[in-house]
Amino acid sequence: VVLVTGAAGSIGSEIARQVVAFCPKQIILLDMAESALYDLQFDMRNEPKFRDLIPNMHFIVASVKDPLRMEEIFKKFRPEVIFHAAAYKHVPFMEDFPYEAVAVNVFGSKLLADLAVKYGVGKFVMISTDKAVNPTNIMGATKRICEMIIQMMDRETPNTSFVAVRFGNVLGSNGSVV
């Protein structure tokens, strides 16, 4: 059972497509952007290679910063692997809205990590950014904090493996320089 947060984003949706190809028992595709998640659902339901897997796909509109909703989702689906791609990532916007950057990127990630431990998730993969290296802006700083949380969780929780991966500019992604 695989949970992908930020599933409607450019990186999350590609992770979702790659994971589905491995025919997981269930895949939970979660995002708070309902229009983008609807578009992903529409695309996947109309793509022949995914049609047989539709009963195993669950598209859920929710925010990673909502503890009651996240607890409900973990309790219902019992994910075994999490790809955590949900984040605010646009640097100039997060300079204007630092509260939201911290609430989603830091507290949302910490909430998911805590639930991963509570529900016995085997693997937690957090998607980070090259901007977390010696951060010079709010977005980069929040992602660096997330990496530090993930490193600490990996050291302190032997039953859940926590890893963070950094992406630079991803060709074709929203906000890509290229």
Structural class: alpha/beta
Number of helices: 6
Average pLDDT across residues? 90
Q: What is the terminal-to-terminal distance?
A: 34 Å
Tell me about this structure.
This protein has 178 residues and is α/β, with parallel strands linked by helices. 45% of the residues lie in helices and 18% in strands. It has 6 helices and 6 strands. The protein has a 6-stranded parallel β-sheet with strand order 3-2-1-4-5-6, with helices on both faces. Helix 3 packs parallel to helix 5 and helix 5 runs parallel beside helix 6. The radius of gyration is 16 Å and the shape is globular. The mean pLDDT is 90.
SSE layout and pairings?
Layout lengths: L1 E4 L4 H11 L6 E5 L2 H12 L11 E5 L5 H11 L3 E4 L6 H6 L1 H21 L4 E7 L8 H19 L4 E7 L11
Parallel strand pairs: 1-2, 1-4, 2-3, 4-5, 5-6
Summarize the structure.
The chain has helices at 10-20, 34-45, 67-77, 91-96, 98-118, 138-156, and strands spanning 2-5, 27-31, 57-61, 81-84, 123-129, 161-167.
Main features:
178 residues, alpha/beta, 45% helix
